[in-house]
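Deliverable D5.2: sample structural annotation.
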Amino acid sequence: MTSGTERSTPRLRAALDGIPSYRPGRAATGRDGVPAYKLSSNENPYPPLPSVLETVRESAMSFNRYPDMFATSLTAAIAARFGVPPTHIAIGTGSVGVLQQVVQATAAEGDEVVYAWRSFEAYPIVVQVSGARSVTVPLRADEHHDLDAMAAAVTDRTRLVLVCSPNNPTGTAVRRAELERFLDRVPADVLVVIDEAYREFVRDPEVPDAIEIYRDRPNVAVLRTFSKAYGLAGLRVGFAIAHEPVADALRKTAVPFGVSGLAQVAATASLDAEDELLARVGALVVERSRVQNALREQGWAHAGDSEANFVWLRLGGRTEEFTGACESAGVVVRPFAGEGARITIGEPEANDVFLRVVKGFAPGAAPST
């Protein structure tokens, strides 16, 4: 036994050393009467649909009870919506929660997980927590996944490959022919997860629905979320669709009762109201096109490539300056220091503020003094 002066801290896992912190989008706070808009978290700017809100209100009377641990009704609704067996579905706390279940089910100490970089910033966190090693493959110059290089990075230690399409934060999406070629090169015992958190915003006909890809490929799983298009970011519910051995493993690694009863009810009601929700998505896509056209006119390369509800700007060393200028004007964006900024498509008024600011940073624009 040690004396009081010799006490040490508890021994923790070395795998946690140096894990990068996840940085959520900052909240918008107005100053001096200037309206503030949050364009930093890829949230849906529309409030919940009245029908969904009413269903949640009714269910709130029962949140003294544990939720259905197996999310039976929601699982059945998802199965019917996407034409898959209920046994192929695993539900979790947002797609990032399901992602953590995936990594826990596939990768351990000494294993490797391959993914593009830059991509979703939660990837290195959940991989390192598992004790596995991240193998990152740089994006191509056009901000797209380099699938040939990713296939070449797969070794006998690889247990999992993550493909984010549309990619967060660049918005670029993987097209069918290149994805099929890539999957043909990946060994059958390596799980490939296609992270489609922004699938509902895709309009490029060459970008496949990964659920159609999974049907004939037992080593493919698909992640989806109700946070973005469905506007349930605050309730945390996502799901994976995968063949039964994989889906069963994901259910085993889920936190018991992790998805609240209110979240389950809201997600089910959102599927029932999908036509209304997708009309809102259509309006956001129209607004995205307006923003992209303005950025093209300003000379921004690849700004029109996004298939998500955000745009990406390569700003390099001017990223922090741009972020500060946006905040002073009343919009909060998501910076990636030294690389660029991701800007969510929000209300037209917010987008107009962003477009006025970004004009001063456009290629060829004189730096501010």
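Annotation notes: The mean pLDDT is 92. The longest strand covers residues 158-164.
The annotation will be released with the project's public dataset once the embargo ends.
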